[in-house]
Amino acid sequence: MLVIFGWRARAHTIGTGQFFCPREGGDRQYEHKEAKRWFTLFFIPIIPLNRLGDYVECTSCQSTYYTSVLDAPTGAAIEDVMTQAIRYVAVALTVADGHVDPEERRVATEVVRQFASTEYTEADFSSDLDQLDPAHLVDNLEELGGILNDHGKEAVIAAAMRLAASDGSVDAAEIAVVEDIGKALSMTDSHVRGVMATAADRG
Fold first, then answer.
1. pTM of the model
2. Contact partners, residue 85, CB within 8 Å, separation at least 6
3. Domain that holds residue 168
4. CATH number for the domain including 197?
5. Do 94 and 134 contact (CB within 8 A), yes or no?
6. Of the residues 38, 71, 104, the one at which a domain ends
7. What mean pLDDT, rounded, does the chain reach?
8. What's the pLDDT score for residue 3?
9. How many separate domains does the chain show?
10. Mean pLDDT of 25-32
């Protein structure tokens, strides 16, 4: 009788979830898989031998990655961080000069809508004015600074300058808030000043 034996690798799923797929450039479902080498008899796995390692597979495109890919934030998580941070920016700039007028409310609401992942109204902004403490602005921007590229950071500074100018003038207190935003986003002083100057020229 001919006995056929050998070895083969098999993988099984040990976890699932959502991640940012680098190949597809968006949030997708993944399977976290563990691979083991098996002893086979007549091509049937019989005895598990050594563990070969684990990996992540995208269920959409079937691309496989090292498990470190799960350390990257998902697009949805980035949107949540951005939404929270820009709400603090809107409040901090609006109250910086000590008064809030209707035009500032309107522009603040528009700016948050520009960045937010959810619907946002002037009533929402009024609620934020009551509940969000501008003293926590920097804390809510530091995580965003580790996520955004330079273009994204510049967009936040440009939006902040739009808010600062929404009442017709930009005073020293508002400039100080914009500079704090730049520092929290890990931008250099010269980079922040350049973006501010460009935004001021555009009016």
1. 0.74
2. 140, 141, 143, 144, 156
3. 75-202
4. 1.10.3680.10
5. no
6. 71
7. 88
8. 45
9. 2
10. 94
